[in-house]
What we know:
With 249 residues, the chain is of the alpha+beta class.
Amino acid sequence: MNARYGMVIDLDRCTGCGSCMIACSAENNVAPTPQATPRTGLTPMLVRKVSNGMQGTARREAFIPIACMHCEHDTPCAKVCPQQAVEVDKATGIVMQMPQRCLGCRYCMTACPYHARYYNWWDPVWPAGMEKSLNPGVASRMRGVVEKCNLCHARLHSAKEKAAAAGKREIDAADYVPACVEACPTGAIHFGNLADQNDPVWNEAHSPNAFRMLARLGTEPKLYYKSKEAWVRALAEPSTARSSEVQHG
């Protein structure tokens, strides 16, 4: 049976610390770009701060980590790409981005309803000595291509290699954990196989407080959220969102 890897993020646990963003950048060799702005930065995982729009003691705030939703059905970015640089892996459900094919037209960015794709404006440059800390399993990308979360695909490859070396066909779930999941200090991000009803993440995705962003579009995202707060769950549809601002740290 093919896997369907995805996440469930508990927004009641998320503190907006940004550890997931830092871990994502380090894992995927995202070079520091001091000249970047909120519009030109490369942030495959971006934490947004939202509020209920109230003032004084009635005001409530929360943080929402946003990454590629890995849409299952009618994947918008894949449908518009003229270069076939976007592909949904049938074996894993992961929406892959292939920089070797990307020509930087940014149609996919326009098509993505979640604004979870980023254009790489600069060739990667690292401060002296920092190149020693790069992840050897992830190739750096040139400027002029679109990037996004790929659920730390290099870690999946490593898990497959480990399983093959042991003579196994299936990977050990403990060997494939994305960097953001591993780095979250509050355990707010849970990862697993949504196609396996025995996987804890399947149960969380089907809990009463679980929801998906823009579910009405029918893209069937594999990134779920959950919250006990009704106003937070209401943010899944833009018509009910009252206020939001980007949190960059």
